[in-house]
Amino acid sequence: MDHLPDDALKTSCRILRGVRPTLPGRKNLDREITDADRAQERGYYLPDEDERLRATYLSYLSGRAILWQMINDFRPYLKSGDLRIFGLAFCAASMLMRSSGYLIGLAKERPVVLAKLDEAEPRYQLPRKTLTGIYRNLSAPGNRWRYRQARSFYESHRTKINEALQKSDMQDIATWLMEEELFLDEGKRKLLGSILAYRAYSLGRRTSSGYTKVMFHLFRLSGSAISEMKQPFTKSPGQGKRVTGEVIEEIRGQLQPGDIFVTRHDDAMSNLFLPGFWPHAALYIGPLSERADLGVPDHGDHSANVLEARKDGVKLRQIEETLMVDSFVVLRPKASREELREALTKALTHEGKSYDFVFDFRKAERLACTEVVYRAFHGVGSWNLELINQNGHLALPAEELIRQGLQKGLVEVALIFGINGNTIETGTRARDLLCSTLKD
Q1: In 3D, which of 395, 406, 390, 401 has the Cα closest to residue 282?
Q2: What are the residues whose beta carbons fall under 8 Å from the beta carbon of 375, sequence distance 6 or more?
Q3: What stretch of H or E contains 131?
Q4: C-alpha span between 287 and 291 (Å, rounded)
Q5: How far apart, in whole angstroms, are the C-alpha atoms of residue 39 and residue 275?
Q6: What pLDDT was estimated at residue 233?
Q7: How many structural domains is the chain composed of?
Q8: Exposed/middle/buried for 131, CB within 10 Å: 0-12, 13-18, 19+?
Q9: Per-chain mean pLDDT for the chain
Q10: What is the pTM of this model?
Q11: Looking at 192-196, 208-212, 271-275, 398-402, which range is the least confident one?
């Protein structure tokens, strides 16, 4: 495939726009710097300071994972010569270099910060020395050299890149590139000087030749970062998902509109930085005929049967896309037909919104995955879901959704797959298996 489809290009733009505000920078680290100075003076972090620093670090790690993956997803278009792709990829890489620089600078000047961020944190599946590993990756000679090539290409083709972005209604990306350029100029005199100080070789005058080289460099950068974040020893390389088309066909007839999917990948980055075994949720709205039978208003893609928030936004999707996973559980709301109609009708009004990378449920302009379920059911009938403090924000993680649903008698476990081998379990057995995955 040589050319990036327009919808994929728009998705990448939405991801970049959503992640950018969550990355640490000079304007949003004031509290953390104050905390760090106090901690350095006393020699340790207080619990509230620890939680604030951890929340900032987790937000950075999550954004880092998403943006490196976004860059890596451009790999099929290596030889396209599309300057918009380069602009998006280089903008993302530059943002990551800048935000990494701020965190590393904070830690280098204050050993107590480095020690704190290098601690293991089992709640979020973080091993020891993660910040040291990021700094090592960032400062590796090969990676410094690759990034320098990409910057040289941008400097040589700045005008054409900006024009390509402007013509595709990506003016904000062009503006951010110029802002990143100012940072890079300043960075030569500061922390990133060691990263950018390598002399660039000539890429030649032909855009197509230089483009392929620098995109390959960006892919190598993203690949090395992604390999750090994969969970080791959970799945052999190249092994497919355990939920197959046959499994989906077997359960399809057992599903009902309003069912809640909670899913897990064995080795995906979506598992990282989230508490518990189950990281993701989606709402099954059912086929059009069943929705009509409930009285749910006609809405959107008639062939879609799941409403799900992912990094590309809140969209109606096919069940095959949602269940391209390794394990899942189906929670069935204890609700009347009228309550299901109300919940599904509310849920569908959120279709088309952007993804909430901050996971702050107090705001409704962007939604995270479990927030689709929360905003659909909360206040309907006996449903009363309580938000908890998650990384400094009020949210409802997937495991908390499961826990409250079971404890309050709001749901029953319809079926589960992937916990006791590659089998489908129902009834009491399904509930027992689900409970075995939940932490006390």
Answers
A1: 401
A2: 346, 347, 350, 364, 367
A3: helix 130-139
A4: 6
A5: 26
A6: 38
A7: 2
A8: buried
A9: 86
A10: 0.81
A11: 192-196
- The DSSP letter of residue 270 is G
- Assess contact for 285 and 348: CB atoms under 8 A: yes
Q: Provide the 8-state DSSP code for 77.
A: G
Residue 296 falls inside a structural domain: yes
Question: Are residues 59 and 99 located together in one domain of the fold?
Answer: yes
Task: Give the number of residues written for the chain.
Answer: 440
8-state DSSP, 385 = P
* Same-domain pairing of 221 and 249: no
Residues 226-285: tens digit of each pLDDT: 666 554 434 555 568 999 999 999 999 999 999 999 999 887 655 556 667 899 999 999
Same domain, 205 and 62: yes
Classify 287 as helix, strand or coil.
coil
Residues 337, 302, single domain; the answer is yes
206 and 325 belong to one structural domain: no
Could you tell me the CATH number of the domain that includes residue 274? 3.90.1720.10
Calculate the dihedral angle through the C-alpha atoms of 311, 313, 315, 321, rounding to the nearest 10 degrees: -10
* Assigned domain for 112 exists: yes
Give the span between the Cα atoms of 73 and 12, in whole angstroms: 9
pLDDT number for residue 229: 57
pLDDT tens digits along 367-418: 999 999 999 999 999 999 999 987 677 899 999 999 999 999 999 999 999 9
Q: Which residue range forms the structural domain that includes residue 289?
A: 245-437
Same domain, 159 and 276: no
Residues 159-165 have a mean pLDDT of 94
Position of tokens 């990094």? Answer: 311
